[in-house]
Amino acid sequence: MNKRLLLAHRPEGLPTEDTWKLDVQPIPEPGEGQLVVRNHYVSLDPAMRIWIKDVRSYLPPVQLGDVMRGGTIGEVIASKHPTFKEGMYVSGWGGIQQYTLTDGQGMFAVDPSLVPLPTYIGGLGMPGLTAYFGIFDVCKIKEGDVVLISGGAGAVGSVAGQIAKIKGCYVVGIAGGPEKCAYMKDELGFDDVIDYKNENIYAGIKRSCPKGMDVYFDNVGGEILDAALARLKLGARIAICGAISQYNSDDFYGPKNYSNLINVRGTMQGFLVLDYGKRYGEAVAQMGQWMAQGKLKTREAIYEGIENFNDTFLRLFNGDKKGKLVLKVIED
Amino acid sequence: MNKRLLLAHRPEGLPTEDTWKLDVQPIPEPGEGQLVVRNHYVSLDPAMRIWIKDVRSYLPPVQLGDVMRGGTIGEVIASKHPTFKEGMYVSGWGGIQQYTLTDGQGMFAVDPSLVPLPTYIGGLGMPGLTAYFGIFDVCKIKEGDVVLISGGAGAVGSVAGQIAKIKGCYVVGIAGGPEKCAYMKDELGFDDVIDYKNENIYAGIKRSCPKGMDVYFDNVGGEILDAALARLKLGARIAICGAISQYNSDDFYGPKNYSNLINVRGTMQGFLVLDYGKRYGEAVAQMGQWMAQGKLKTREAIYEGIENFNDTFLRLFNGDKKGKLVLKVIED
Question: N or C end of chain B: which has fewer CB within 10 A?
């Protein structure tokens, strides 16, 4: 049978068990031009909190009663599709379910022998690609830049920071708690770290970036963005990647210090990895090479069981995870 | 004698008469390499409210007891300077005083027969140049763009909007009150206008830009910036030129909708006209030509008497003026 997670109610604030409905259906059969994927892992991402709001964003909201949108990696178990054949592994938007019936649109084949399967929805998946295009195309990093990254131990920030290090930048990561900070400093090789749960964020940025930042890669929004805006260097670039601190709030925090962009002639730019589809191949090849050389490390926090989706999803917001959050949905 | 306006106290909120001290000194004599300018007009600008705060900005704050910083246009009445000779008219940072002793740094000669003198500190001065570089270099306007401009009847906004019209954009101006709105529509030729004092700003933007904006040129900040952020088109550019609605406040308004920059892949960029010094000539020549052709109109609101500085300055913030605010300081 195919267990599927449907959106049952739109939550206010944090999602609860009532937000979702676990539904069981027969495993689908492929029609002409279709394939069926048995999903091994699904990706849990902060953006999901946006997709279940009934507001216009860069994608239409998930409708009530629909399978929850999500990135997946799995094996083709049945196919009447010209290119995706039985036994191949494919990644794409399979949704939070154990089996996906698809015409292959948006799916791409991956080599399961190169890196572990969860890496294809982590460091070499959307989070890694987001980091890659954000740090190069939006932040326009160059050697010697002082680069500050919020959510620095997270799926996107950890990759963005390591790429900046590879390119000769001075990298400071922000995260909550000593464990994540030790991870950024000791394992990822960041130059300095700020533990926002144990240090005033304004003081921490001043201490670690005494002359200000050339680049701020923002994954969190809120007061941390505000503090960063106050300490920019001339010509600074801010990439607005996400605002996880605000996704469960109805009253978004507006950064008061945005007008410092005038003083420093700074730029604040939003971006989406979806726009870089034609260059995913370039990015995956480059990042795969760095991984093989041991220069780029990713970490997946893997939990098990589609039944545990909500509990696992909440770890995105309470900070209780290490690395990219992945849920194993395949059952042995 | 030379009447000079000194900064006496740093105000909280709006400046008062006590903020300033009118001081009288003998008219200075030029030393070797110096000249003395008899100022006819001084420029009153929103940025002055920033310069008298004791905070780091793009220029050092005016010190207590110093002559207030300000742009000027006047005649050289005595000179031991190699290039600026008696009888020439020069513009520059002469300060709020009737006579300026200077080594000529930052001064440039102008032709008083081409346009009226006040225009050299208005449409062809810093406000006009700010509009020129903001609309071209920051907003990167192109034909057919929907361009929204706050402070659209003001010194900068009125020029920015007219340039956008010349370049084939659809231009919507925001200002307060029916008189300013009629000015933008009837005299400046804007396509549509929003009277923020008599129409909800969110509704006004939705009405006048039903498909959103490609460009937003922001002179005011606050809720108007927030409303504009909510209705951007894909790839929109926001120029942060100023935030006059916030300069007298200790609690800056942070725009909650900034994260819409992600959805639309938008850019918000601060800029300063000071960075474009090498291209002032190009801009003045182009704008002067448009003025001669009747395509670019500027309006100066001229008040008289250095004694009336504070009352006149407050017109910047209560909206009680038409066009670029200029104070005549020469006495007959």
Answer: C
